[in-house]
Design a protein that fits this description.
By secondary structure, the protein is α/β, with parallel strands linked by helices. The protein is built from 20 helices and 22 strands. It is globular, with a radius of gyration of 27 Å. Bound molecules: flavin-adenine dinucleotide, NADP nicotinamide-adenine-dinucleotide phosphate and flavin mononucleotide. NADP nicotinamide-adenine-dinucleotide phosphate (NAP) binds next to strand 15, strand 19, helix 17, strand 21 and helix 19. GO terms for molecular function: [methionine synthase] reductase (NADPH) activity; flavin adenine dinucleotide binding; FMN binding.
Amino acid sequence: MGNERLVDVMYGSETGNAEAIARRIHAELGEHGLSAGCILPLNSYEQTCLSHVDEKSPVQSRMFVFVISTYGDGDVPFNTDRFFKYLRKKSHPVDFLRNVSYAVLGLGDTNYTNFCNGSKRLERALKKYGAKNVYYRGEADDEIGLHLVVEPWIDGLWDAMNKYFGAEAIAPALQAQTEKLDPSPAKAPTQLNGVPKPAELKLRVEESVGPVENSSTKTENGEFTGRVCGARLLTSTSCDKRVWHMEVESDNNLSYQPGDAFSVRVRNNAEEVDELLAILKVDGNKVISIYDGENLVNGPEKVKDTLGWRYDIRSPASKKLLRALADSSTDAADEQRLLLWSSRTGRKEYEANILNKSASLLDVLLGNPSCVPSINILLELLPALQPRFYSAASAVEYTPRAVHFAFSVVEAEVASSVRRGVATGYLEDLCRKFIDGERTPNLVLSSRSSGKFKPPAELDVPYIMIGPGTGVAPFLGFLQQRSVLRVDSENLAADVSLYFGCRRRDTDHLYEEELDRFVEGGTLSYLSVAFSREHEHKVYVQDKIKAEGQQLCKLLVENEKSRVYICGDGGEMVRGVVEGLTSVLQDHGGMSKADAKLKMTALERSDRLIKDVWYWG
Ligand SMILES: Cc1cc2nc3c(=O)[nH]c(=O)nc-3n(C[C@H](O)[C@H](O)[C@H](O)COP(=O)(O)OP(=O)(O)OC[C@H]3O[C@@H](n4cnc5c(N)ncnc54)[C@H](O)[C@@H]3O)c2cc1C
Ligand SMILES: NC(=O)c1ccc[n+]([C@@H]2O[C@H](COP(=O)([O-])OP(=O)(O)OC[C@H]3O[C@@H](n4cnc5c(N)ncnc54)[C@H](OP(=O)(O)O)[C@@H]3O)[C@@H](O)[C@H]2O)c1
Ligand SMILES: Cc1cc2nc3c(=O)[nH]c(=O)nc-3n(C[C@H](O)[C@H](O)[C@H](O)COP(=O)(O)O)c2cc1C
């Protein structure tokens, strides 16, 4: 390894978490005596030494930091697929990465079976070709908060890299700097350990005049704009939850397959943004531009749009943000409290006051009234507001001009009020506006392939769809496409069945009329609905599946082409349905529990059991 201390940073990311962390690491390299090389998505490997020109010799010596998330069911993000394909090339010499040193940080979510598998796959591939790791592979969990792993992982990274470059001498100094408390002795509670160092602000915010950008509709790679052209409430007014059907039309040609999802950019709740701006004492109509060095990052735009569209003001406050908020407090008690929550010593207090209460920036500011941070601090330390995914509840062959969605409004009780989810609150307001005949702002969307979760190409493949609640959404698209294909085809179509679950027939039987029409027209051979709250005991889709197990087992065991699709809540529902199918194989297929489980694994491996599940956190 040369001693130029040059570090390249690469990322694999779909919704921007890994990219944001990679960019931060890249920006901080200089502070730690390291030189910043490139910062690129993994698919741009051709621009780095990883793409060796000479097939026979190893790549030149280089240090890399990789930050990579996980998608699908343990798959890698889409902006890494070409890189992984490249790594599989047979022509590489066995140790062609022997001069490469690396550190890998994985992002994932423990709700998924294959936690952080993207980072595991990357590390396996790097090791296989002789690359050497200089630091342990981090596994950050979205379920409990990425920053709980990301912050200590980055803190330790500098030391590990400097040691590797042979600069142990400067490592202790860096360590001390990392652990340093606020230099003002009167302010710093010295008994706390591991208070993050105060954040250095890199972004510059300037007041601007002149034309203002419309942040809401500026599209970036792959995105397009659409407008609401239909909306209706799918649940009855007596139901204690609300599910909306929303239609979005676009001037762009819509191109997607049944099963695909769309990411939708959303805006924070306007009242919360106003409340935040009032605390900051900033006029929301003030026009600002944000610069990183000389580069314009965002703007010119109104501050209320910057906070509304770009920053996640809802997720639990990070320790780094709390540390900065402590510095912005004038009351000693507020400051001590915030320092404690941001310190390693205060881990339990952080969990109790921030994570368990899902306390956002606004909650923290309301609870620590002397804290009035500058807008610059927030723009630097708040995470980016992520778009949300929604499965298409339509097929382009059936409704070519509009894509349909079904979304369930998230509601959480905070203190004595009910807060709606960021996206579902925003989308629900759009639906209501549309129904009231008001103008609705354009939406910015982007389609995302759901990989294997798509209907079979041939009509003669029988399949079973299982989708309680909003999990039924993609199956509307399956059935719409099928109804068109059946008309066009002369071949005999195989049977398809749908298992749907809801609370009561008269409150939340989503798409009852549409599904009945598909049954009447022969597109859907069999519809089974589990009404969970109409009986003394709960009845779920898996209970229906078990009760009708004989037919189902015959199909799964005897027809080698048959498939099962599961969609919706990835927690208890998916576990329950998989258990239900396993017991069907035991009860009607004469299998032992172990054999039935093996059969389920085999079905999944051969893409005959396909899941598309999501988690609400
Ligand atoms: C591929 C894919 C397809 C999807 N398809 C659909 C679909 O078709 N239909 C659909 O409805 N959803 C779908 N989802 C889920 C969807 O993307 C969103 O996650 C969901 O709509 C919630 O978004 P939100 O912004 O309204 O909620 P968020 O604001 O992100 O809230 C999410 C969670 O945080 C909790 N929470 C929020 N604020 C607080 C608080 N203050 N205190 C305590 N808890 C809190 C909520 O209870 C909830 O559990 C899909 C997800 C994926 C990944
Ligand atoms: N935090 C929020 O505000 C929020 C908002 C939307 C969705 N979610 C969560 O997301 C999930 C799906 O939401 P949704 O609106 O699409 O559907 P949903 O109405 O919550 O659920 C659809 C049907 O699935 C049933 N169900 C519950 N647990 C199940 C299990 N373990 N196995 C099989 N079926 C089960 C429900 O029954 P019962 O309800 O009668 O048990 C209901 O009949 C739920 O877990 C829900 O809690 C949360
Ligand atoms: C559709 C979908 C599938 C996912 N699948 C997995 C998975 O199989 N394993 C895992 O550990 N995390 C999974 N995740 C969680 C993401 O890896 C995690 O949210 C991460 O922070 C996303 O980072 P990114 O914004 O850089 O893409 C999934 C997330 C989504 C939205």
